[in-house]
Design brief:
single chain; SH3 type barrels; Helix Hairpins; five-stranded antiparallel sheet; five-stranded mixed sheet; 15 strands; flat
Length: 613
């Protein structure tokens, strides 16, 4: 018990139990608040009944009543990771940069050796590692922790990170973890980690032989409901066997081709998210699995896999002298508009290399069909990647239109103008590229019927520049970063459990809506400096003085649509209060909400004058 508190206890002024709890809030001690996070007690006033605590999420030290602090905080030991975030933040940040594994170990030790990923996020993101850098850092940190052998990194976000038992060798720990794991992805991650123990496996190949039958049994059980992860486990096993010299598969071991026969080759939707090397192993097993039918089987897969799979299958067919069959398949898909978006992306990206023979005018029309179909689809936006490709690849439109005659070029331009999928600024940008390629299409824009325009937005020049800067940041930074985050999350696979992917998709939708709204508003914005304002009545660019029923005065400044400063009573002219005032003259009475009390009341206009910036 703190000596100062002991005096109150000895005098009988407070119970001993309260004294013990109060001592936990002595200067220098640490505590945890539900909203403000971890904190360190800076000072206390026992006679005044107050304590000052410096919380990590509060801008300034908080002065709390002792009774409230006792109720709303809990004690933290000085070696608790959360307390160290307050007291040793520079040290933890340096550790995150230089030794991320040690930071994770330190954190887990403070939490009983186990934490779920979302809890880890709360411990590190935004405090130790900046939020904008966190996803990239966490990806590297997980890889480093997994390779260190000190931490078990789960494949699902619903499972915890766990400190390993250091009494066992890394090889022994991994073997035990594999046997205990029940999830296919978890087992694959452990096999991946075993690659770092190649030397130990060469000395103890029996450790792998101990696992081999269990791999076969796990795959056989998972083929029906978890085909992709089951094949991934086999492909990972084969990589391990090739890497470690003294490892070999027994004659009775289950091969990828055996698994394919059991599934009839319906693997497209299941292996899209697998790494290219793993996909390639699976495709290379098709000839052994299906004999003369393997080309037809793999072409059906070609129509349904991602861009990585399309690329790998095309390389395989070309090297096996089946390029003509692939070309016929692509030509048919372009003609019938059944070709996948991923295949179209591959053709466009490789149009000057491996896909040169497949690139032509039909690709552009197939892209527009896929984009429009995606725009009205209730499911995932299938055309989004094609839209991004059209916008990002500055020469793609010209290449698509290069061999088109005027009528076909005009048809393409009409499809672009009528497509519901593109934001207005994107459509204009793409049409500019069409016109540069075929100037004769200009009349489609200049001769188009004028649409009814929304009412213009009056804005200050300062707020207009701010909004333009926000739009530029959205387009050049936030949207590309979200796209990169989504690609990274997609590489984790298993979209049903992939929290990062769903979060990135939700962010994508919000950013897309935000972009559309900002483009519409910027298109309607009319800047002004509020000069020549008519001060005969309340309006845009005026300062209005009103009197309440109790005789108090309020002063409101009515400015542009994006000028809002509630603390200084600056109102955008479209706001509720501004709309009530606009049009009224000195002496008029209005009923509006008082911004200071938030209550409805009657006000009389006492003065209206022009605002000067």
């Amino acid at each position: 018990m703190h000596p100062d508190v002991a005096k109150f206890v000895d005098a009988g002024r407070i119970p001993e139990a309260v004294g013990l709890r109060l001592s936990e809030l002595a200067p220098g001690c640490f505590c945890l608040h539900k909203s403000w996070g971890a904190g360190k007690v800076k000072d206390w006033d026992l006679f005044g009944g107050k304590v000052t605590i410096d919380f990590e999420r509060a801008r300034e030290p908080q002065v709390m009543g002792l009774q409230l602090a006792i109720q709303k905080t809990e004690k933290l030991e000085s070696d608790d990771f959360r307390a160290e975030r307050v007291d040793k933040l520079p040290e933890l940040r340096a550790l995150a940069d230089s030794e991320p594994t040690q930071l994770i170990v330190r954190m887990l030790e403070s939490h009983g050796g186990s934490l779920k990923p979302d809890q880890v996020d709360r411990e590190i993101c935004g405090t130790i590692v900046p939020e904008e850098d966190y996803k990239k850092w966490w990806d590297k940190a997980k890889r480093a922790a997994r390779e260190s052998g000190l931490v078990i990194i789960p494949s699902k976000r619903t499972e915890p990170l766990v400190l390993r038992d250091t009494s066992k060798s890394p090889l022994e720990s991994l073997v035990s973890e594999f046997q205990e794991a029940r999830d296919l992805k978890a087992k694959t991650a452990i096999l991946d980690a075993l690659k770092n123990e190649a030397d130990a496996l060469n000395e103890q190949p029996e450790a792998f032989q101990q696992l081999s039958p269990e791999i076969d049994n796990t795959v056989k059980k998972g083929l029906k409901l978890n085909l992709g992860p089951a094949l991934d486990l086999l492909a990972c096993r084969d990589e391990l066997v090739e890497l470690v010299e003294k490892l070999a598969l027994g004659d009775e071991a289950l091969r990828i081709e055996n698994a394919l026969v059991l599934t009839d080759g319906d693997v497209a939707g299941e292996i899209t998210s697998l790494p290219a090397a793993r996909q390639r192993r699976i495709y290379e097993s098709f000839p052994i699995a299906y004999g003369d039918e393997w080309v037809d089987k793999i072409l059906r897969v070609f129509d349904r896999v991602g861009t990585r799979g399309v690329s790998e299958i095309s390389k395989m067919l070309e090297s096996a002298d089946h390029g003509e069959k692939l070309a016929h398949h692509i030509k048919k898909g372009l003609s019938l508009r059944t070709i996948s978006s991923d295949a179209l992306v591959w053709i466009c990206r490789e149009r000057k290399n491996s896909a040169n023979d497949h690139f032509g005018p039909e690709v552009g029309f197939a892209m527009m069909s896929a984009i429009d179909a995606g725009a009205v689809d209730d499911g995932p936006r299938k055309g989004t990647k094609l839209q991004n490709l059209l916008m990002d690849d500055k020469t793609l439109v010209a290449d698509l239109l290069g061999d088109l005659d005027l009528n076909e070029a005009r048809n393409f331009a009409r499809k672009l103008l009528q497509s519901p999928a593109f934001a207005e600024l994107d459509r204009k940008s793409l049409m500019a590229r069409v016109i540069r390629s075929h100037p004769e299409t200009q009349d489609l824009v200049t001769g188009a019927a004028k649409e009814e325009k929304d009412e213009a937005l009056v804005v200050s020049w300062e707020s207009l520049e701010r909004r333009k800067a926000e739009y530029e940041d959205l387009v050049k930074n936030k949207i590309p970063k979200n796209l990169a985050d989504k690609k990274l999350a997609a590489s984790y696979g298993d979209f049903r459990e992939n929290f990062e992917y769903h979060a990135a998709k939700e962010t994508e939708r919000k950013l897309h809506r935000q972009r559309q709204d900002m483009e519409r508003e910027l298109g309607l914005a009319q800047g002004t400096d509020f000069s020549n304002t008519d001060a005969s009545q309340a309006g845009i660019g005026t300062v209005v003085t009103v009197e309440t029923e109790s005789g108090q005065e309020r002063e409101y400044t009515i400015l542009g649509a994006w000028d809002s400063d509630p603390e200084n009573n600056v109102l955008p002219y479209l706001s509720e209060s501004a709309q009530v005032l606009i049009g009224h003259k000195v002496g008029d009475e209005v009923e509006m909400r008082d911004m200071e009390t938030d209550k409805m009341g009657k006000f009389r206009l006492k003065d209206v004058r022009a605002w000067k910036s």
